[in-house]
Amino acid sequence: MNCLEARIVKDGVVKEGNVLKVDSFLNHQMDIELLNEMGKEFYARFQNKPINKILTIEASGIAIAYAVALQFHVPVVFAKKSKSINISGDTYVAEVESFTHKNKNTVVVSKQFLSADDHVLIIDDFLANGCALQGLISIVNQAGGTVEGIGIAVEKGFQSGGQIIRNMGYHLESLAIVESMDHTTGKIEFREQA
Ligand code: 5GP
Known about the structure:
two-stranded antiparallel ribbon, 6 helices, binds guanosine-5'-monophosphate
């Protein structure tokens, strides 16, 4: 069991509706030592790729992306949730349905910060059905950039996102893959990873 899995078992809370709460160390209060370890692990898994930019989505992806970017010595760009319509055409835009809030968000990235020259590592905290990732992939594609890989802290392996993204041919690495979780008992099981 790696340190993220151990922390999930210790402090994660399984909620109804297939939601895993990790507010005490990742999504509200943040354990910086743990984030740094996660950054190093993503670096180990993607260091052979020519990554020059990290892309994530606000808010929860930002801290993890920071820890990864510190290892790669590259900038982080985060997709912003936007209420205004893009009239000027100076942003890349994607629609992302929120798994936890069940609403649709328009997310944008300024064309200033992503281009065809970019080799991007996409980072996010959770992978459920894959909507957030598909939005981020679309933004990289709109820029003409290359998705070099995708790093996820917690993949819920019993939901469809991981398979969809891997079937699309992307190199997806998840630090913890939850195989099953039960809100009545609180029991969480992980997929064995090599
Ligand atoms: P997807 O787009 O893959 O369906 O869901 C991923 C997004 O929803 C992530 O950016 C994350 O913020 C949120 N999310 C999905 N499942 C969970 C969960 O079980 N716990 C938490 N805390 N966030 C989740």
